[in-house]
UniProtKB/TrEMBL annotation:
Signal peptide: none annotated. The keyword Lyase applies. Its cofactor is pyridoxal 5'-phosphate. Keywords: Lyase, Pyridoxal phosphate. Its EC number is 4.1.1.25. The lineage of its organism: Bacteria, Bacillati, Bacillota, Bacilli, Lactobacillales. PANTHER family: PTHR42735, PYRIDOXAL PHOSPHATE-DEPENDENT DECARBOXYLASE FAMILY PROTEIN. It comes from Limosilactobacillus oris F0423. This is Tyrosine decarboxylase. PROSITE patterns: DDC_GAD_HDC_YDC (PS00392). GO terms for molecular function: tyrosine decarboxylase activity. It is an enzyme of class 4 (lyase).
């Protein structure tokens, strides 16, 4: 395998394995790394004598304390072995979790021994530099040429940072008018509130640092004009972190507007346009729009390209909105479309390239033109949430954000001297530009290592994401053709939509049942049997998750699905909620047709037993 052509990446070498097949490699490597850390300690200042002597180690209290430590760790092991979820197994379809990458686990464990704190370069020169490089990886993955990014504790914080950027951005023109009106002369307040991010940044960068600081000091960060910034529009499928973010940033929940989704659970662009025009007619600006790529409950993908088109069209009419893509779940999927030089692969070559790299086992249309066009449009957004601890297969806690223009950092930036001294010349600096303070250097090491072992393009992550998409398609086809006969009751299996990504939602219903509450009860009971609720999860042979689509979040968007199952509109209005079973197919092993076939049998049997226990 040469540096340039990595068509031969073998993912089976990069996981510990469901049955610990690669335990030998894991242990051998861990052992070597531990030796290196111990040696590192030993060799620092060899003139310093050990402070814990063999004599000390022979004392009664030492022995007793050490034994006690062992027994507490035994307790820990008992607790973990009896109360952990078998997320590594191909039988686990619960949350966005699966077997994580062995290189990331090794890197995390190893780097943890150094306890680097990426709050400041001086406390973690090695891992701070890695985080800077990972930030560049995020930017490149998402198509930003002049971008920047960093790791955050999770996607929720990354989203909050996205709203932080949008809020400050929207408020800056009003602050400019107050501090130096000639910067924005001739503009009405409405025009000021509809200036593009690029225009605002250009003006801010053109003034002296003192003036810029004064403008920032009169922006939303100081609480100015908070009631003028307008609405933050999110799709009905939004992650609930958006509500927290609106709460904490002072934007306020009343300024969060839900945009309807279509029958595929994708943001409805016509509805979005109507919402924005109705607001504009009342001179209410749009603080920003969120597009979700990989919705948390459905795995669906919003039409980012169409939203960008709408933004450009409205901009001609003097209406502008900031665009954030919440791709906490879906961002790594962009590696399916990048060649080894990070160029976006032309659509008509995609299948050939995927075949060359062995991205999919079957020669099928796994990637629709629709999904392709969405990923292509990513670089048009101002900021993007990226979660390595989801489709990056990296252990928690690793979220992330990337921004289109590196200098956008200045609109949220702080310069606390105790962590960052401009005169120090530190090559990488983070804390002035992020929500968090102290943070694990080990996380950066884990993400950095994963990205180096699996490049963020078709030759690396693309293959891994391809496996999950192929497995999800197999699972979808499996469910579509499934039904059960439980003591004379025919139980239908009804998938929600054809998945855009790798999540499959479905419901069970007893054939002929037209009582929605009864169907909801069946699916809730099934979930209880397929989760921690019904006894120890370690003994459970099939695990999935559950969600409710209710009118207070989804409006009437579930109606087409509910009606397709034979329920009346009245029935929906009466119950106003449909319970859904949800499988996140992240497992890197069920892409394979034979593996899938053997697990399909086991899963079918497990489902049948659970349904029998409920209905029998
Ligand atoms: C998971 C998710 C989040 C939140 O990410 P965490 O890392 O769990 O905080 C935000 N948005 C979407 C679409 C998600 O799927």
């Amino acid at each position: 395998m040469t540096e340039k052509s990595r068509t031969g990446l073998n993912l089976d070498a990069l996981f510990i394995g469901d049955k610990s097949e690669n335990a030998d490699i894991f242990k051998k490597t861990m052992d070597k790394l531990i030796d290196e850390h111990m040696g590192w300690r030993l060799n620092y200042m060899p003139q310093d004598k050990p402070l814990i002597t063999e004599n000390d180690k022979g004392s009664e209290t030492f022995k007793k304390t050490s034994q006690h430590m062992q027994s507490v760790l035994d307790d820990l092991s008992v607790r973990l072995r009896s109360n952990s979820v078998p997320w590594h197994s191909p039988r686990y379809f619960g949350h966005m979790n699966s077997e994580t990458l062995m290189p990331a686990i090794l890197a995390y464990s190893y780097a943890m021994l150094w306890n680097g704190n990426n709050v400041a370069y001086e406390s973690s020169p090695g891992t701070s530099q890695m985080e800077e490089e990972v930030g560049q990886d995020f930017a490149t993955l998402n198509g930003y040429k002049d971008g920047w990014g960093h790791i955050s504790a999770d996607g929720s914080l990354a989203n909050m940072e996205g709203l932080w950027y949008a809020r400050n951005m929207k408020s800056l023109p009003l602050a400019m008018k107050k501090i130096k009106p000639e910067l924005v002369s001739g503009k009405s307040d409405w025009e000021l509130l509809n200036m593009s991010a690029e225009e605002v940044l250009e003006i801010l960068n053109s003034v002296d640092p003192e003036v810029a600081a004064d403008i920032k000091a009169h922006s939303a960060r100081a609480g100015h004009n908070m009631d003028k910034l307008g609405k933050w529009i999110v799709p009905q499928t939004k992650h609930y972190s958006w509500l927290k973010a609106a709460d904490v940033t002072g934007v306020g929940l009343d300024n969060v507007v839900s945009c309807p989704v279509d029958e595929h659970y994708r943001l409805d662009v016509d509805a979005l346009e109507k919402i924005i025009r109705d607001l504009a007619a009342k001179e209410i600006p749009v603080l920003g729009v969120v597009a979700v790529v990989g919705s948390t409950e459905e795995g669906q993908i919003d039409p980012v390209d169409k939203i960008v088109e709408l933004r450009d069209k409205l901009q001609q009419e003097g209406i502008y909105f900031y665009l954030h893509i919440d791709a906490a779940y879906g961002s790594y999927g962009r590696s399916l479309f990048l060649d080894e030089d990070n160029n976006f692969i032309p659509y008509d070559e995609l299948k050939t390239v995927h075949q060359k790299y062995g991205v999919f086992q079957e020669n099928k249309e796994y990637i629709s033109r629709y999904v392709y066009d969405v990923y292509k449009a990513f670089p048009e957004a101002q900021s993007i949430t990226v979660d390595p601890h989801k489709m990056g297969y990296v252990p928690y806690a690793a979220g992330g954000i990337t921004i289109r223009h590196k200098n956008m950092r200045d609109i949220i930036g702080y310069f606390p001297v105790y962590v960052y001294d401009k005169r120090s010349g530190a090559p990488a600096t983070l804390t002035p530009y992020i929500l968090e303070g102290s943070k694990a250097g080990a996380t950066a090491a884990a993400v950095w290592t994963a990205h180096r072992v699996l490049p963020l393009n078709v030759s690396g992550y693309g293959k891994l994401i391809g496996r999950s998409i192929e497995a999800a398609q197999r699972y979808y086809e499996f469910l579509k053709n499934l039904s059960f006969n439980i003591n004379g009751n025919e139980v239908e299996v009804n998938p929600l939509t054809k998945p855009d990504f790798n999540m499959v939602d479905w419901t069970f219903n007893v054939k002929g049942n037209t009582n929605l509450a009864k169907m909801n009860e069946l699916n809730l009971k099934f979930y209880q049997k397929a989760s921690f609720v019904d006894g120890p999860v370690y003994n459970n042979d099939f695990l999935t998750s559950h969600t409710d689509f209710a009118t207070d979040g989804y409006g009437d968007s579930p109606v087409p699905y509910v009606k397709s199952l034979g329920f009346s509109e009245d029935e929906w209005q009466k119950v106003q909620s449909v319970g859904i079973l949800r499988a996140c197919i992240l497992t890197p092993f069920l892409y394979d047709r034979d593996n899938f076939a053997s697990y399909a049998e086991k899963i079918k049997k497990a489902i049948e037993e659970k349904l029998t226990a409920i209905l029998g």
